[in-house]
Design goal:
Helix content: over 70%
Order of helices and strands: HHHHHHHHHHHHHHHHH
Shape: globular
Number of helices: 17
Radius of gyration: 22 Å
Length: 464
Amino acid sequence: MTSDKFFSNTKNSVNDMTKGSVGKTIVTFLLPMILTNTLQQIYSIADTLIVGKGLGDDALGAVGNMGPLTFLIFGFSMGLTSGFAVIIGQKFGAKDIKGLKRAVASSIKLSAIIALIITFISLTQLRNLMILLDTPEDVLDMSLKYGYIIFAGSFASIAYNLCSSVLRSLGDSKTPFYAIVFSCTFNFIFDWISIFKLHMGVEGPAIVTVISQIISTAILLIRLRSINIIIPSRSDFTIQSNTDISLLRNGIPMAVMSSITAVGCIIVQHFVNGMGVAYTSAYSICGRYLNLFMTASSTTGQAVSVFISQNYGSGKYNRIKRGLRMGIFISLMTSVLFGSLMVFFPVTLSSQMLDGTLQIELAASYLRSLGMMLFIVNMLYIVRGACQGMGKPFIPMISGIAEMILRIVTIALLAPRLGFIAAAYAEIAAWIGAFSMNGAAYIYNIRRLFRFGHSRDNTKSKKA
């Protein structure tokens, strides 16, 4: 059986994104991803609502205070597995079955090693990191109780990220959606039970989160085992230096980018924590809302990255440009929608999860400021995803360093004068700097492709 016939075999049920209408291909792939990530963010907000209403604003601050730290640690693993998925997507686009299986096997090995390291470091250094963050004494113990459980389940989180990244690199965005529907339903029900019926405190939601990740991973594994073209043999798990180096060359920069970006957020969190518990609580719910309203564009960036990785591997460079334009269009539409909510209804949004008048006022001013500039970060996700999909992760990594520096410098300079709102300006400064760098990198790389590469894309095809 030829590779083309094997790839089109319905038993493998993979999605070849190198053919057909660009717009239809991206939108069809994107919609389940948006639903998946939106459900995750809605659950995050629901979880915050349950914790805040059931345990109070201090508990809400304790859980929210872990946000930048979990972003730092789990963001590294998410970046790493996303980087691995780009290589897998390129192998898939090139119809390289042998290389595809080796890439999957090496991704499993490397992810297991990273999981061990992350679990050890996070569990042994969590208290020191919390103290370094200047966590208020009122919430330190609760933050630690929550954090130790979450980080003890690092293996489940990393396994889920790897499985979902591999499936998406093959064009399957539906199975992760099914898994997250179950996960969010499980989380919501048992979070409520753990707090209001079992009176477990912040430990309850943490335990429920880890269990749901384990179950979600199991669902994804069942799906992966049905895709013959990626099932590695025992020999594929032997040391493959070229494959391992290729994966790490792409995965490490993306992981570092995520972590470095998180470091900037942690520094901002440090400044906010120093202002008091009310400010910590307000900043916590602003982060939840911001993540929710950025979900559509961040997900579009992921979809564009997968689309471009397959077409890059297949040598269809004209489709890369059309895919980017579609991503930008979607990004701008979501900016108008969600930016308007943040600008015109910030008090309504804030009061849904906060009770204190001061906290609501602080959160509303933060949301209003960022809502007016939301289009910048949404565009950033698209151009960054395009660079990553072409296997060019170093500029995104450098832009992550720039983001960190801009956040730190802005908050350090403005916080003494402007107070809490300086945190919003730090975000905006980071977005502008990162977007400028990634936009320039995309233009440079796409021009090089057309100058030195040979596109096999049929630009006259009506289907494209």
